[in-house]
Amino acid sequence: MAEKTAQIVQKSRAQEIRLDEIDKGPAHIRTYVNEEDLEELKDSIQKLGLLQPIVVMEKQNVKRGERKYSLVVGSRRVLAHEKMGREEIPAVVIKEQNRETVLAASLAENMFRSKLSHKDTAKAVTELYKIYGKNIKRVAKETGMWPATVLRYVYLEEYGSDNMVDWVQRGKVRLGDVKRALEAAKWNIVKAERYLETMIKEGMTPTQKKDFIGYMTENPSAAIKEGVEDTKTLRVRNKILVDLPLDIQKGVEKAMKQLRMADDEVALLALKTWLHDQGYA
Fold it and tell me: Taking the complete model, does pTM exceed 0.85, yes or no?
Protein backbone atom coordinates (compact mmCIF):
# COMPACT_ATOMS: atom_id res chain seq x y z
CA MET A 1 0.00 0.00 0.00
CA ALA A 2 2.80 2.42 0.85
CA GLU A 3 4.36 1.66 -2.55
CA LYS A 4 1.08 2.51 -4.30
CA THR A 5 0.97 5.92 -2.61
CA ALA A 6 4.64 6.51 -3.50
CA GLN A 7 3.85 5.87 -7.17
CA ILE A 8 1.04 8.43 -7.06
CA VAL A 9 3.37 11.00 -5.46
CA GLN A 10 6.09 10.47 -8.08
CA LYS A 11 3.64 11.37 -10.85
CA SER A 12 2.50 14.57 -9.14
CA ARG A 13 4.00 18.06 -8.96
CA ALA A 14 4.49 20.03 -5.77
CA GLN A 15 2.61 23.26 -5.14
CA GLU A 16 2.53 25.81 -2.33
CA ILE A 17 -0.39 25.37 0.08
CA ARG A 18 -1.28 27.20 3.28
CA LEU A 19 -0.38 25.54 6.58
CA ASP A 20 -3.71 26.55 8.10
CA GLU A 21 -5.49 24.50 5.42
CA ILE A 22 -3.82 21.26 6.54
CA ASP A 23 -5.48 18.82 8.92
CA LYS A 24 -2.64 16.79 10.48
CA GLY A 25 -4.96 13.98 11.52
CA PRO A 26 -3.46 10.50 11.95
CA ALA A 27 -0.19 11.50 10.25
CA HIS A 28 0.73 13.48 13.37
CA ILE A 29 1.47 10.31 15.30
CA ARG A 30 4.28 11.72 17.42
CA THR A 31 3.68 12.80 21.01
CA TYR A 32 7.39 13.47 21.47
CA VAL A 33 9.61 15.37 19.03
CA ASN A 34 13.37 15.55 19.42
CA GLU A 35 14.00 19.30 19.59
CA GLU A 36 17.61 18.91 18.44
CA ASP A 37 16.53 17.03 15.32
CA LEU A 38 13.84 19.62 14.68
CA GLU A 39 16.39 22.44 14.92
CA GLU A 40 18.61 20.63 12.40
CA LEU A 41 15.65 20.29 10.06
CA LYS A 42 14.83 24.00 10.41
CA ASP A 43 18.46 24.95 9.65
CA SER A 44 18.44 22.72 6.57
CA ILE A 45 15.19 24.25 5.29
CA GLN A 46 16.48 27.78 5.84
CA LYS A 47 19.74 27.06 3.99
CA LEU A 48 18.62 24.71 1.23
CA GLY A 49 14.85 25.01 1.15
CA LEU A 50 12.52 22.06 1.60
CA LEU A 51 14.20 19.29 -0.41
CA GLN A 52 11.24 16.93 -0.17
CA PRO A 53 7.68 18.28 -0.22
CA ILE A 54 5.06 16.97 2.14
CA VAL A 55 2.18 14.86 0.83
CA VAL A 56 -1.43 15.81 1.49
CA MET A 57 -4.74 14.37 0.40
CA GLU A 58 -7.38 16.72 -0.96
CA LYS A 59 -10.63 16.29 0.94
CA GLN A 60 -13.96 15.94 -0.79
CA ASN A 61 -17.13 17.81 0.12
CA VAL A 62 -15.32 20.29 2.37
CA LYS A 63 -17.68 22.44 4.43
CA ARG A 64 -17.13 26.09 5.31
CA GLY A 65 -14.55 26.45 8.06
CA GLU A 66 -13.08 23.00 7.53
CA ARG A 67 -9.50 22.38 6.49
CA LYS A 68 -9.03 21.53 2.84
CA TYR A 69 -6.25 18.92 3.06
CA SER A 70 -5.37 15.88 5.18
CA LEU A 71 -1.68 15.38 5.91
CA VAL A 72 -0.37 12.05 4.67
CA VAL A 73 3.42 12.36 5.01
CA GLY A 74 5.59 15.09 6.52
CA SER A 75 4.48 15.94 10.06
CA ARG A 76 8.01 17.00 11.11
CA ARG A 77 8.36 19.21 8.05
CA VAL A 78 5.03 20.88 8.82
CA LEU A 79 6.05 21.40 12.45
CA ALA A 80 9.38 22.94 11.37
CA HIS A 81 7.59 25.38 9.05
CA GLU A 82 5.16 26.32 11.82
CA LYS A 83 8.01 27.03 14.24
CA MET A 84 9.71 29.13 11.56
CA GLY A 85 6.57 31.24 11.28
CA ARG A 86 5.94 30.37 7.64
CA GLU A 87 2.43 30.39 6.23
CA GLU A 88 2.93 28.08 3.23
CA ILE A 89 4.73 24.84 2.47
CA PRO A 90 5.52 22.90 -0.75
CA ALA A 91 3.19 19.93 -1.02
CA VAL A 92 2.23 17.16 -3.39
CA VAL A 93 -1.57 17.03 -3.47
CA ILE A 94 -3.16 13.66 -4.21
CA LYS A 95 -6.83 12.98 -4.71
CA GLU A 96 -8.76 11.26 -1.98
CA GLN A 97 -7.65 7.63 -2.13
CA ASN A 98 -8.55 4.59 -0.12
CA ARG A 99 -8.25 5.67 3.53
CA GLU A 100 -6.37 2.52 4.50
CA THR A 101 -3.77 3.07 1.79
CA VAL A 102 -3.07 6.66 2.82
CA LEU A 103 -3.07 6.06 6.57
CA ALA A 104 -0.79 3.03 6.25
CA ALA A 105 1.67 5.03 4.15
CA SER A 106 1.58 7.86 6.67
CA LEU A 107 2.23 5.71 9.70
CA ALA A 108 4.93 3.64 8.01
CA GLU A 109 6.72 6.80 6.85
CA ASN A 110 6.61 8.29 10.33
CA MET A 111 8.11 5.14 11.79
CA PHE A 112 10.97 4.89 9.29
CA ARG A 113 11.95 8.54 8.77
CA SER A 114 12.87 9.28 12.39
CA LYS A 115 12.99 6.98 15.39
CA LEU A 116 9.76 7.07 17.33
CA SER A 117 9.43 6.62 21.08
CA HIS A 118 8.03 3.31 22.25
CA LYS A 119 4.75 5.06 23.05
CA ASP A 120 4.40 6.51 19.55
CA THR A 121 5.57 3.30 17.89
CA ALA A 122 2.96 1.34 19.84
CA LYS A 123 0.30 3.81 18.70
CA ALA A 124 1.38 3.61 15.06
CA VAL A 125 1.69 -0.18 15.02
CA THR A 126 -1.71 -0.61 16.64
CA GLU A 127 -3.30 1.72 14.06
CA LEU A 128 -1.84 -0.41 11.26
CA TYR A 129 -2.90 -3.57 13.11
CA LYS A 130 -6.50 -2.37 13.09
CA ILE A 131 -6.34 -1.13 9.49
CA TYR A 132 -5.11 -4.50 8.29
CA GLY A 133 -7.85 -6.43 10.08
CA LYS A 134 -5.58 -7.48 12.96
CA ASN A 135 -3.27 -9.26 10.51
CA ILE A 136 0.03 -9.33 12.39
CA LYS A 137 2.06 -10.71 9.46
CA ARG A 138 0.89 -7.89 7.22
CA VAL A 139 1.87 -5.24 9.76
CA ALA A 140 5.24 -6.95 10.18
CA LYS A 141 5.80 -6.79 6.43
CA GLU A 142 4.95 -3.07 6.25
CA THR A 143 7.12 -2.10 9.24
CA GLY A 144 9.99 -4.59 8.93
CA MET A 145 9.34 -5.79 12.48
CA TRP A 146 9.21 -9.33 13.75
CA PRO A 147 5.57 -10.49 14.14
CA ALA A 148 6.21 -11.07 17.85
CA THR A 149 7.37 -7.46 18.22
CA VAL A 150 4.24 -6.21 16.48
CA LEU A 151 2.07 -8.11 18.96
CA ARG A 152 4.05 -6.79 21.92
CA TYR A 153 3.56 -3.20 20.77
CA VAL A 154 -0.17 -3.84 20.35
CA TYR A 155 -0.31 -5.18 23.90
CA LEU A 156 1.52 -2.09 25.17
CA GLU A 157 -0.90 0.27 23.40
CA GLU A 158 -4.12 -1.63 24.10
CA TYR A 159 -3.50 -2.82 27.66
CA GLY A 160 -0.37 -1.15 29.03
CA SER A 161 -0.51 1.51 31.74
CA ASP A 162 1.41 4.79 31.73
CA ASN A 163 3.89 3.24 34.16
CA MET A 164 4.48 0.30 31.82
CA VAL A 165 5.09 2.59 28.86
CA ASP A 166 7.52 4.66 30.94
CA TRP A 167 9.44 1.58 32.12
CA VAL A 168 9.80 0.32 28.57
CA GLN A 169 10.89 3.75 27.33
CA ARG A 170 13.55 4.00 30.04
CA GLY A 171 14.77 0.45 29.42
CA LYS A 172 13.71 -0.83 32.83
CA VAL A 173 11.70 -3.66 31.27
CA ARG A 174 11.23 -4.97 27.75
CA LEU A 175 8.15 -5.23 25.58
CA GLY A 176 8.09 -8.99 26.07
CA ASP A 177 8.15 -8.53 29.85
CA VAL A 178 5.02 -6.37 29.67
CA LYS A 179 3.21 -8.89 27.50
CA ARG A 180 4.07 -11.82 29.78
CA ALA A 181 3.20 -9.87 32.94
CA LEU A 182 -0.21 -8.91 31.57
CA GLU A 183 -0.96 -12.48 30.55
CA ALA A 184 0.20 -13.88 33.89
CA ALA A 185 -1.93 -11.32 35.76
CA LYS A 186 -4.98 -12.17 33.63
CA TRP A 187 -5.05 -8.55 32.40
CA ASN A 188 -5.16 -7.16 35.93
CA ILE A 189 -3.15 -3.96 35.43
CA VAL A 190 -2.32 -3.44 39.11
CA LYS A 191 -1.10 -7.01 39.49
CA ALA A 192 0.90 -6.86 36.26
CA GLU A 193 2.58 -3.64 37.44
CA ARG A 194 3.59 -5.37 40.67
CA TYR A 195 5.21 -8.17 38.69
CA LEU A 196 7.14 -5.67 36.60
CA GLU A 197 8.14 -3.59 39.62
CA THR A 198 9.49 -6.76 41.21
CA MET A 199 11.56 -7.55 38.10
CA ILE A 200 13.06 -4.05 38.23
CA LYS A 201 13.69 -4.05 42.00
CA GLU A 202 15.32 -7.49 41.97
CA GLY A 203 17.43 -6.66 38.91
CA MET A 204 16.33 -9.86 37.20
CA THR A 205 18.01 -11.11 34.04
CA PRO A 206 15.79 -11.86 31.01
CA THR A 207 15.78 -15.57 31.86
CA GLN A 208 14.99 -14.89 35.52
CA LYS A 209 12.07 -12.72 34.44
CA LYS A 210 10.68 -15.59 32.38
CA ASP A 211 11.14 -18.02 35.29
CA PHE A 212 9.46 -15.58 37.69
CA ILE A 213 6.49 -15.00 35.40
CA GLY A 214 6.27 -18.74 34.74
CA TYR A 215 6.01 -19.40 38.47
CA MET A 216 3.36 -16.72 39.01
CA THR A 217 1.37 -18.04 36.05
CA GLU A 218 1.38 -21.58 37.45
CA ASN A 219 0.74 -20.35 41.00
CA PRO A 220 -1.62 -17.34 40.66
CA SER A 221 -2.51 -17.28 44.34
CA ALA A 222 1.12 -17.33 45.50
CA ALA A 223 2.74 -14.29 47.05
CA ILE A 224 5.19 -12.43 44.84
CA LYS A 225 7.89 -13.10 47.44
CA GLU A 226 7.47 -16.84 46.85
CA GLY A 227 7.95 -16.35 43.10
CA VAL A 228 11.15 -14.38 43.69
CA GLU A 229 12.56 -17.01 46.05
CA ASP A 230 11.69 -19.85 43.68
CA THR A 231 13.29 -18.01 40.76
CA LYS A 232 16.52 -17.38 42.69
CA THR A 233 16.69 -21.02 43.77
CA LEU A 234 16.05 -22.20 40.21
CA ARG A 235 18.78 -19.98 38.76
CA VAL A 236 21.37 -21.14 41.32
CA ARG A 237 20.49 -24.78 40.68
CA ASN A 238 20.50 -24.52 36.88
CA LYS A 239 23.27 -22.00 36.19
CA ILE A 240 26.23 -23.21 34.11
CA LEU A 241 29.38 -21.08 33.80
CA VAL A 242 31.29 -21.53 30.56
CA ASP A 243 34.35 -19.73 29.16
CA LEU A 244 33.48 -18.90 25.55
CA PRO A 245 36.15 -18.82 22.80
CA LEU A 246 36.39 -15.52 20.92
CA ASP A 247 34.69 -16.85 17.76
CA ILE A 248 31.75 -18.15 19.82
CA GLN A 249 31.48 -14.80 21.64
CA LYS A 250 31.26 -13.00 18.29
CA GLY A 251 28.64 -15.48 17.10
CA VAL A 252 26.55 -14.90 20.22
CA GLU A 253 26.80 -11.11 19.82
CA LYS A 254 25.72 -11.36 16.17
CA ALA A 255 22.76 -13.57 17.10
CA MET A 256 21.76 -11.15 19.89
CA LYS A 257 21.55 -8.26 17.43
CA GLN A 258 19.73 -10.14 14.67
CA LEU A 259 17.32 -12.03 16.94
CA ARG A 260 16.96 -9.17 19.45
CA MET A 261 17.56 -11.54 22.33
CA ALA A 262 19.67 -11.41 25.50
CA ASP A 263 22.95 -13.35 25.68
CA ASP A 264 21.61 -16.03 28.03
CA GLU A 265 18.56 -16.51 25.79
CA VAL A 266 20.78 -17.06 22.74
CA ALA A 267 22.98 -19.50 24.67
CA LEU A 268 19.97 -21.44 25.95
CA LEU A 269 18.43 -21.61 22.48
CA ALA A 270 21.72 -22.85 21.00
CA LEU A 271 22.01 -25.52 23.71
CA LYS A 272 18.42 -26.66 23.24
CA THR A 273 18.92 -26.89 19.45
CA TRP A 274 22.12 -28.95 19.81
CA LEU A 275 20.57 -31.33 22.35
CA HIS A 276 17.56 -31.80 20.09
CA ASP A 277 19.70 -32.41 16.99
CA GLN A 278 21.78 -34.97 18.87
CA GLY A 279 18.69 -36.76 20.13
CA TYR A 280 19.18 -35.87 23.80
CA ALA A 281 16.06 -33.71 24.12
Answer: no
